[in-house]
User: Fold these one by one.
Assistant:
Number 1:
Amino acid sequence: MTEPILSVRGVSKTYASGVRALHAVDLDIDKGEIFALLGPNGAGKTTLISIICGIVTPSTGTITVGGHDAIHAPARARRQIGLVPQELATDMFETVLSTCRFSRGLFGYPPHAGHIDQVLKDLSLYDRRNARIMELSGGMKRRVLIAKALAHEPDILFLDEPTAGVDVALRRDMWQLVHRLRAQGTTIILTTHYIEEAEEMADRVGVIAGGKLLVVDEKAALMKKLGKRKLDIALSEALVAVPAALGDWRLSLEDDGRILRYVFDTQSDRNDIPGLMQKLVEMKIGFKDLETSTSSLEDIFVDLVGEGAK
Ligand code: ADP
Ligand code: MG
């Protein structure tokens, strides 16, 4: 077995305000994988990334990046890491090119014009390389943050909520870039609160909530475990209770009995919707509309936490 490129052990963080943002997080990341850290706002995702990148000091725990102790030798660990932060933060008066060059130099790497030009081309920034960052649109500014993070050819790239609020073109370019980087052997760790994004992108997913890493698994296994869908049947007439004859389905009444809700696993063979529809017709329970939706992250967390408590 090869050493993980990133190893997090027993990392906890309590901010000075008293907020416990992380509780004893353990995580190993293998070289070359795309890992998604999935969790709602406030789960602790940015805190964990900030600790790994040496921006925030953990209260307890150890971290190694490529074998280097990230807490006691942060500079050596940080050289191998590219970070695209959640918030736009860069010098607005600098040009695109000088920002990228400077960032590379900051990590102690010699200039490499060819590499930086390629990164700028990959991100459709090359034509604007001499523009000052303040002159660029919000989407272009985000591209600059990515270029800056890649300027020193990092082995590990962190993308903190990369697609929250970005346009479709940037989203597409970003995913193409991620796949290209992965093909070159770069390890990619992204955070997101969109389950679809984790599903689309990642090899493995870790679910974090309330500062605890609840589960880490291969994407397919996790989606199988977590995925639930909801079918809302708008009834012609409200019901007082779910009829006993519909006991084969997991049903509940919502909206004062006007909506019959069926919750089912996405992967299970037992989501017998046609059977339910037929039964409703037989029982002369009229309905006027149907709506399906995928369970929210919150529903999933309730399930996960419930499972853990059993
Ligand atoms: P996420 O990135 O998953 O949304 P964060 O790591 O930003 O979560 O936040 C986790 C928790 O820590 C939240 O309750 C947040 O309010 C708190 N927090 C984050 N940064 C700070 C800080 N600098 N000082 C105090 N509390 C913070
Ligand atoms: Mg965050």
Number 2:
Amino acid sequence: MLFSKLYAPTIKEKPADSETISYELLTRGGFIRKVAAGIYTYLPLGWRVIKKITKIVEEEMDKIGAQEFMMPIIQQAEIWKESGRWEDYGPEMMKLSDRHGREFTLGPTHEEMITFIVRNELRSYKQLPLILYQINQKYRDEIRPRFGLMRAREFIMKDAYSFHSDEKSLEETYQDFYRAYSKICERLELNYISVEADTGAIGGTDSHEFIILASTGESDIYVCDSCGYSASEERAQSKIPENIPEEIEPLEEVPTPNVKTIEDVSEFLKVSKEKIVKSLLYVGRNGYVMALIRGDYELNESKLKSLLKDQTLRLATPEEVQRDFGVPIGFIGPVGIDGVKVQKVADLSIKNLNNFVVGGMKEDYHYINTNLNRDFTVELWGDIRTVKEGEGCPKCGNQLRHTKGIEVGHIFKLGTKYSEKLNGYFVDEEGKNKPYLMGCYGWGISRTLAAIVEQLHDDNGIIWPISVAPYTVEIVIVNTSDEEQRTFGFKLYEILKSRNCEVLLDDRETSAGFKFKDSDLIGFPIRITVGKKLKDGKIEIKKRYEEKGVEVSIKKGLEEVVDLIEKTIEEYSTKFIQNNLTIS
Ligand code: ATP
Ligand code: MG
């Protein structure tokens, strides 16, 4: 390809709406253009990378026996009503209706659709296991479509679904996906980690996420360097010191004028935060839920939603609290609250805690010396706390380390959740009708494009791994009006092309500085400079991540130069950069 013909409009300045480095560099490098919030166009360079990522994913899927096919993006509301997710999936679903008023959604995911498709024809144990996958656009009306391609409203996903007659078969396929996903990360030459994950709105049992490490990532990860335990924040657990039981004191109501936050209460009453129980009021599908947690810990909403199996859960507003309980939100507490009106859910951190402080259910009052069972009861116990760095690993007790990354892949064991609801049954060897066991496996193709850039860049631009670089080699003719440089550049370009090397020739009539800036910004792995020194029989070969290139003599002939370029391609490794990465 000739740069003079390539549609890659590069931009010098940072875009005004720059949200993250990948958005900035992909926009400036002429890979993508934002069309509306969370909606993007892939320009030729961006699309080349997308296709390369896609190819790697497809190859690894094919290796584990997954068959590619294609489902529609528009899905009828009925199947979502069958599963119950028409309501449960929440406002992330993009809904539309046709001229007859029939409702549809633009598929945010395809569990319902796949089950609907196979349920009439996948009827015998002899047809199992079956793994199908597709690559297409998904639609989610994300509450905050920011971070460029990382959290888009229209994005490209590979989604696979598997069907099994027994647990063993599901487990085998799950492990196949686990290995295939690890292989994809390796082929992308990325620094990654796999972590135990929450099953969220999709539901199910086991789940792992594949995370590309990057300090700019949205995923918080806790890792134990001693035993290898790793989990996402929504799932991570830790050992917490047990509360030591004390002699129980009588409950007392005390005035606490204008004292609202945990800090205020702690200061005003001269008690440590560990002796205060926070009461957080939520509204869910079945009404109010009060989540109780020790004052020094943070509540984890994802864990709470999973525990209650209610993805619609949200914090109650101050107005709702005032209207329904007659107190300002800062003074709510579990004493005197009826478990029928409000379900009380407590974090394990308050087990065995005695004589603690809670809201007084009366403006400007708190209770001190509150005790479980005597003063109030808890309807549901669970781990609903966010882990903190330095706490003990739940497996070995060693300190947990916090790191950040970008989730690119997510695998789930769904069990029979969708097959039961959507009537996906098969006949087993004994002639019995059974729901299939299912798995689902997502990979964010367009998010991967952004994640690579988040991990691999420097001040000047992107540093592509060879495996997905839009072009492997770029030849820069420094002075296009110099006939010798032009001739040599074009000749080298033709030879590289004939050797199946993906090469771009910068033949534009612009300044050398401009070309080099674009070269670094776009981030071609190998740059060959044909410039002034050609007169002395020298050109330069440079790896994108190295400061300086290597001068090469062309005197021995072009074949030898090309061999050297090929050798440089072989040696190129982004591991080199990753070893110097610091991720906070
Ligand atoms: P997140 O927690 O980031 O919202 P998710 O759990 O909703 O992700 P899944 O439903 O598991 O994501 O989707 C599978 C994959 O699709 C994710 O691992 C991610 O790579 C990609 N993905 C999900 N949401 C988006 C989005 N809004 N934009 C781009 N890619 C996305
Ligand atoms: Mg999501």
